[in-house]
Amino acid sequence: MSIIDELKWRGAVNQQTDEEGLGKLVNEKAVGLYAGIDPTGDSMHIGHLIPFMILKRFQLAGHKPVIVIGGATGSIGDPSGKKAERVLQSMDQVRHNQDCLTAQMEHLFGQDGSFRIVNNYDWLSKLSLLDFLRDYGKLFNINNMLNKEVVASRLEVGISFTEFTYQILQSIDFLHLFKAEDVQVQIGGADQWGNITAGIDLIHKQEGADARAYGLTIPLLLKADGTKFGKSEGGNIWLDPEKTSPYEFYQFWINTDDRDVVKFLKYFTFLSQGEIQKLADAVATHPEKREAQTRLAEEVTEFVHGHDAVVEAQHITKALFSGDVAELTASEIEQGFKKMPAVTVSAAKKNIVEWLVDDTKIESSRRQAREDLSNGAIRVNGEKVTDTDAEIDPASAFEGKFVIIRRGKKRYFLARVAD
Asked: 294-331 pLDDT, tens per residue?
């Protein structure tokens, strides 16, 4: 199966500029191809990951990926998918973001030298205004630019000249990479089709109509409920572990709807067709076991965060399910309890009834606290406490940083011990 056929099987091909020509090219040689990302933030989220999963597949198939960090275009703003003008960032912020994104790409694509990361600031910043207008602006027809969906969708609300020129800058990227890096294919989301075709047109005008340059776009990924893939109720799922912990990342994937899990296995894992079919069969016959979701969570978490993060996420998941939280580390508690109810308490020892009512407000009254304790409904750091005269020592566990309270079977509370 060729790489293009595999991408089709995975449902990852939306449009190709020349299907026959691209198919021949990838079978003839190790092809240079690129996808880009603008440093509008200091981390990718999982929606950004989609085109780079395609680039990774080409890398594993022996091709030559080039990742473009848009230090120049990121300072301008891509109008694609935006209903209003972007707020321009300072160049210091752009540089910080591009450093962060470069580190993430190096982690995802490895250290074996089989790919390159470049920054379009290195060539676009050298263009003078007159060179831009004379050498490139002259080659772009305004009527054609206005008809591109990315521009047409903004005409009613308005688009600045700055964002209007974005497709020219991205076209220059493709031309530069074609000449300097032997890049012949650009990969992007469905909303990048107009920019990609504009780049190919520029290459043909500059290098000749027979220049072999191609584009491939990826479908907009929708969930079974019709909503756009990539967000949870709490917002974006980030690749930066400080923004979305590996445990939260793992939980996002393991909670995938049965209707979506096979699609996501095809998109986001490197499992073979046979392995995915077995998991698809498991979804059909024993959905309650959630084997496909577990494998999806393991594969994607390991790809993004490494094997140790998978082990840690599974350890936290098991501890919270069983209630055996005493085995967790302070770091694991930070991850697993990040979105659970939390209070700050002093390190002073105190009677448990008073502590549950006055210090944490977990219990509404002393009477209710005594009743819950007597009924065995309260666990402190995984241990059942029934003695109403017991004493809480907040500094006695988890490096003196936390106390974990479970009330009933599932309600957890986290008490953070003040420094």
From this structure: 999 999 999 999 999 999 999 999 988 888 888 899 99
What pTM did the predictor assign? 0.87
Of the candidates 244, 195, 235, 242, the one whose C-alpha atom is nearest the C-alpha of residue 215 is 195
- Taking the mean position of all CA atoms in its chain, how far away is CA 10? 19
Residue identified by tokens 């750091």 is 381
The per-residue pLDDT for range 397-419, each reduced to its tens digit, is: 899 999 999 998 878 999 999 98
CA torsion, ordered 340, 345, 351, 353, to nearest 10 deg: -40
Residue set of the binding site for ATP: 231
**Block residue for tokens 């602006």:** 137
Binding residue ranges for L-tyrosine: 34, 166, 170
Supply 410's token pair.
């599932």
Nearest to 373 by CA among 353, 357, 391: 353
Cα 105 to Cα 100: distance, rounded to the nearest angstrom? 9
Binding-site residues from annotation: 34, 166, 170, 231
All residues at 6 or more sequence positions from 120 whose CB lies less than 8 Å from its CB, including other chains: 36, 68, 69, 70, 71, 72, 73, 169, 173, 176
E strand or H helix at 97, and its extent?
helix 91-109
CA distance 79 to 151: 7
Please answer whether residues 44 and 101 qualify as being in contact, where contact means their C-beta atoms are separated by less than 8 angstroms.
Answer: yes
DSSP 109-145: H-SSSSSEEEETHHHHTT--HHHIIIIIGGGS-HHHH
Burial class (CB in 10 A: 0-12, 13-18, 19+), 255: exposed
Alpha helices in 165-240 (DSSP H): 166-180, 193-207
